[in-house]
From TrEMBL:
<dbReference type="Pfam" id="PF01330">
    <property type="entry name" value="RuvA_N"/>
</dbReference>
<comment type="similarity">
    <text>Belongs to the RuvA family.</text>
</comment>
<dbReference type="GO" id="GO:0005524">
    <property type="term" value="F:ATP binding"/>
</dbReference>
<dbReference type="Pfam" id="PF07499">
    <property type="entry name" value="RuvA_C"/>
</dbReference>
<dbReference type="GO" id="GO:0005737">
    <property type="term" value="C:cytoplasm"/>
</dbReference>
<keyword id="KW-0378">Hydrolase</keyword>
<dbReference type="GO" id="GO:0016787">
    <property type="term" value="F:hydrolase activity"/>
</dbReference>
<protein>
    <recommendedName>
        <fullName>Holliday junction branch migration complex subunit RuvA</fullName>
    </recommendedName>
</protein>
<keyword id="KW-0347">Helicase</keyword>
<keyword id="KW-0227">DNA damage</keyword>
<feature type="region of interest" description="Domain III">
    <location>
        <begin position="151"/>
        <end position="200"/>
    </location>
</feature>
<feature type="domain" description="Helix-hairpin-helix DNA-binding motif class 1">
    <location>
        <begin position="72"/>
        <end position="91"/>
    </location>
</feature>
<comment type="subunit">
    <text>Homotetramer. Forms an RuvA(8)-RuvB(12)-Holliday junction (HJ) complex. HJ DNA is sandwiched between 2 RuvA tetramers; dsDNA enters through RuvA and exits via RuvB. An RuvB hexamer assembles on each DNA strand where it exits the tetramer. Each RuvB hexamer is contacted by two RuvA subunits (via domain III) on 2 adjacent RuvB subunits; this complex drives branch migration. In the full resolvosome a probable DNA-RuvA(4)-RuvB(12)-RuvC(2) complex forms which resolves the HJ.</text>
</comment>
<dbReference type="GO" id="GO:0000400">
    <property type="term" value="F:four-way junction DNA binding"/>
</dbReference>
<keyword id="KW-0963">Cytoplasm</keyword>
<dbReference type="InterPro" id="IPR013849">
    <property type="entry name" value="DNA_helicase_Holl-junc_RuvA_I"/>
</dbReference>
<keyword id="KW-0547">Nucleotide-binding</keyword>
Length: 200
C-alpha cells in the first residue's frame, strides 16, 4: 500500500494526473485533477490509496491527508464506491462533508452527484460521530448559501488554472471571468463555458 508519492506532475487529464517518480509515470485518479496544473513540471506530494478488485487495480490520489481519510471512510458506506467517493470530494471539502454528516444535513448531502436520500441517510447512519479525526473545523453549516458559494468559487479557481494550462493569457481569462462568476457550476462546466465564450 502506498501512503503517498512524491514526484513531478507530468500531465493533467480530466479524470487523473500523471506523476513522474524516478522515470515511472503513475496514473492517479483524483477528485479535481485541474488543481495540479499549477504543479506541472514541478515536484509535489500526493496522498494515495490503492484500490484492488477482481477486474482492476487503481491508484487514487489526494492533495491532503484529510481528503484521503474521508475517501476511505466513504468507501465503507453501502452504495458508495470509489467513483462516488471521488465525486463527493470533488464538490465538497472534507470539513463540509463531515459537518453535514454530523448535523444530519441530508439536503446538503443529496446535492452531491449520485447521492440520493437513501445514500445520504446511509452516510449519516454509518459515519456520524466517526469522523472527528478528519477535521476539527466546527460550525461550517451555519450559512449554507455561503458554503455553496465557496464551493462554486473553488470550482471557478480550478477552471481558471486549467485555462492557463491550456495556454490562454491572463488578459483573455480576465475578460470572461465576470461572466463566469455569474454562474454556479462545476469545474468542468466552467471550463466548457469559458471555452465557448473564448472562441466567439
Amino acid at each position: 500500500m502506498y501512503e503517498y508519492i512524491k514526484g513531478t506532475v507530468d500531465s493533467v487529464y480530466p479524470d487523473y494526473v500523471v506523476i513522474d517518480n524516478n522515470g515511472v509515470g503513475f496514473q492517479i485518479l483524483t477528485p479535481n485533477p485541474y488543481v495540479f496544473t499549477k504543479h506541472i513540471n514541478k515536484q509535489c506530494k500526493i496522498y494515495t490509496y490503492q484500490h484492488v478488485r477482481e477486474d482492476m487495480i487503481a491508484l487514487y490520489g489526494f492533495e491532503t491527508a484529510e481528503q484521503k481519510q474521508l475517501f476511505k471512510k466513504l468507501l465503507n458506506v453501502s452504495g458508495i464506491g470509489p467513483k462516488g467517493a471521488l465525486a463527493i470530494l470533488a464538490y465538497g471539502q472534507p470539513a463540509q462533508v463531515v459537518e453535514a454528516i454530523d448535523h444530519e444535513n441530508e439536503t446538503f448531502l443529496t446535492k452531491f452527484p449520485g447521492v440520493g436520500k437513501k445514500t445520504a441517510r446511509q452516510m449519516i447512519l454509518d459515519l456520524k460521530g466517526k469522523l472527528d479525526v478528519i477535521t476539527d473545523q466546527p460550525n461550517l453549516f451555519n450559512h449554507e448559501e455561503v458554503l455553496q458559494k465557496e464551493v462554486s468559487n473553488q470550482s471557478l479557481e480550478e477552471a481558471i488554472l486549467a485555462l492557463q494550462a491550456l495556454g490562454y493569457s491572463q488578459k483573455e481569462i480576465n475578460k470572461i471571468t465576470p461572466q463566469l462568476k455569474q454562474q454556479d457550476l462545476t469545474t468542468d462546466e466552467y471550463i466548457k463555458l469559458a471555452l465557448r465564450t473564448l472562441v466567439k
